[in-house]
């Protein structure tokens, strides 16, 4: 289920980039800063917060179950403290944190972040792939960030789905022209590559998620044919 | 008339491209360590030297084959003679000296004085001939006159020629040359001690019939053996006075030995960084393809690690000593040069077109990256430059500096978040494919003529049998990607197959594509 509120902690370059990319996906976006001057600069769009906060106002105003928090403070120690503080107060809040290095990424995970974006690691991965595998890097980039018409989608197997109770390897995927199924994710396991030995013996059940690549029309056709829909479920995150 | 003829000839040689080209060629193969043919010449000459010495040793007690003897005495000597003449030729330019003299005199409205030019030529050539290396070269030719038995010992000079070819000897002598004054002082001190102690011991022991020291030469021999702390014991003083002198010489010997050792150690310690740098530059100039990373901070450190893990060669350049030290500690070839200075690249003597895969400006500072990129662009217009961008406001400046690819980490975080929020599982899948630690990988397989001959269409590939997903075909010439192509799609040379699968299965599949026999 998609989240309705975004809580962005930190008013910096990362916050601007995230806002630009995700603002249309949420009904409400709330930005918090530690610094008074950010509040003044932003004409009141930014609210002030304190690391020793009890989060009473957020608890009162925000539907935490349907919110996602972005911890973007530039000071590693402060960002970790913020994450641990949010997790201690809100058990079901989905937290995404940005880490400047691997060491703080590990600490942020330990502090309870659902997902950590290690900036150095990610940037270096992208640079290395650009240099060593330029074609695949370009294609994956265009698929992931929807720069071409090719899309990647996750499709949940419903009660009515055709594939339900079928063995993964017994399905003739060639019947579904135009799409490629890359992996499957069962609620108890991480996403498994379609040809992995685990996936080979897997019986498709209700709630499984298929990760497919294809053009929009073909994905829609596939959804129709198998009787399933695209789906986002944060509890399935593997970390 | 003769003067005119000499001048014309000098001008002709000085301007002749073919003559200068030949002369440069010989200079390079004889003197330029960076020349790729020089090492073969060196190995050839070293082999000749060892053959000569081998013959000399064999000849002491056994008969040496006449042909081998002829080869050693005449052929090798002739080769050395040719080498000597070539070195003498390339050591300086006769035509340049004559032309310079002619132009100098003409400028001052004087009659051209060729005698002065010849005098200068003689001086320059004699200077070369008097250099230690040239003298050794000359002596190495002398065994040619092998009938003169005494001259045969000059074969040993051929061994000294090894100094010319073995770089480590040259390094050793250049290191020791820095301590010339100290070694001279030590030499004078040791000589005075040896002289005084020889005279003293001779005076004390010379008249004693039981003493083995009967001549001044024996006294000198004893002094040298004692001061060097060798102490054979074949000649020993027997009088009390003589033993007292021996005590003093032994103490002086310890001082000389300690002083010599410390001189060697300090000379090497002082020059160690320089020697290492020279070695690094040599190694870099030998590399075939590498990434040049400018700056060693968090992102560059990680990029270096990943590229290195994939087997790519990398060179790191940074103007900060502590960052260079960190890169060296991490096991990379790192140079303490400023990436923003042209002379840094000149010193390295690298061919950017042939040797560099890409330059990565990865300082976490836009000003430094622009500076380095502009410097590199001023040297080479085609080399691929990738740069980090730290502030979006500077993007245009980086574009203007001629950077081919800009990576802006903040923008990446925005894009990643967008995808994470919308499709977390799909994101995980793609992220896994890109990650270096994942089992499942995405790879690019180039299509060769052999593959096209054996597998004309996509349907013939049989990738499913190898548990490999064919994501699509990238047509390089048209810069187009054909996703999930149908079985009838024709493969062409230059295409790339984008495949997803376990690394080991992709390798198997690739091997199969390359090794399958036609129609087999």
Structural write-up:
The complex is a heterodimer of chains A (about 240) and B (about 525). Chain A has two domains: about 5-125, Rossmann fold, CATH 3.40.50.720; about 140-235, Regulator of K+ conductance, C-terminal domain (Alpha-Beta Plaits, 2-Layer Sandwich). Helices cover about 35% and strands about 25% of the residues of chain A. Chain A has nine helices and eleven strands. In chain A, strands 3-2-1-4-5-6 form a six-stranded parallel sheet. In chain A, strand 5 (about 95-100), helix 5 (about 100-110) and strand 6 (about 115-120) form a beta-alpha-beta unit. The longest helix of chain A has 14 residues, at about 75-90. The two termini of chain A are about 20 Å apart. Chain B has about 525 residues and is α/β, with parallel strands linked by helices. In chain B, the strands form two sheets. In chain B, strands 3-2-1-4-5-6 form a six-stranded parallel sheet, with helices on both faces. A four-stranded antiparallel sheet of chain B has the order 7-10-8-9. In chain B, helix 1 (about 1-15) packs across helix 5 (about 95-105). The N and C termini of chain B lie far apart (about 80 Å). The mean pLDDT of chain B is about 85. Chains A and B meet through helix 1, helix 6, helix 7, strand 7 and strand 8 of A and helix 15, strand 4, helix 21, helix 22 and strand 7 of B.
Give the topology:
The complex is a heterodimer of chains A (239) and B (520).
Chain A: E1 5-9, H1 13-22, E2 28-33, H2 36-41, E3 46-48, H3 56-61, E4 67-71, H4 76-89, E5 94-99, H5 102-110, E6 115-118, H6 119-132, H7 134-144, E7 150-156, E8 179-185, E9 192-193, H8 197-200, E10 209-215, H9 216-226, E11 229-230
Parallel strand pairs in A: 1-2, 1-4, 2-3, 4-5, 5-6
Antiparallel strand pairs in A: 7-10, 7-11, 8-9, 8-10
Helix pairs in contact in A: 4-5, 6-7
Chain B: H1 2-15, H2 17-31, H3 38-61, H4 66-91, H5 94-107, H6 114-129, H7 132-141, H8 149-152, H9 155-160, H10 162-165, H11 167-177, H12 180-205, H13 216-227, H14 240-286, E1 290-294, H15 298-309, E2 313-317, H16 321-329, E3 333-335, H17 342-348, H18 352-355, E4 356-361, H19 366-379, E5 385-388, H20 395-400, E6 405-407, H21 409-422, H22 424-434, E7 440-446, H23 449-454, E8 469-475, E9 480-483, E10 495-502, H24 503-515
Parallel strand pairs in B: 1-2, 1-4, 2-3, 4-5, 5-6
Antiparallel strand pairs in B: 7-10, 8-9, 8-10
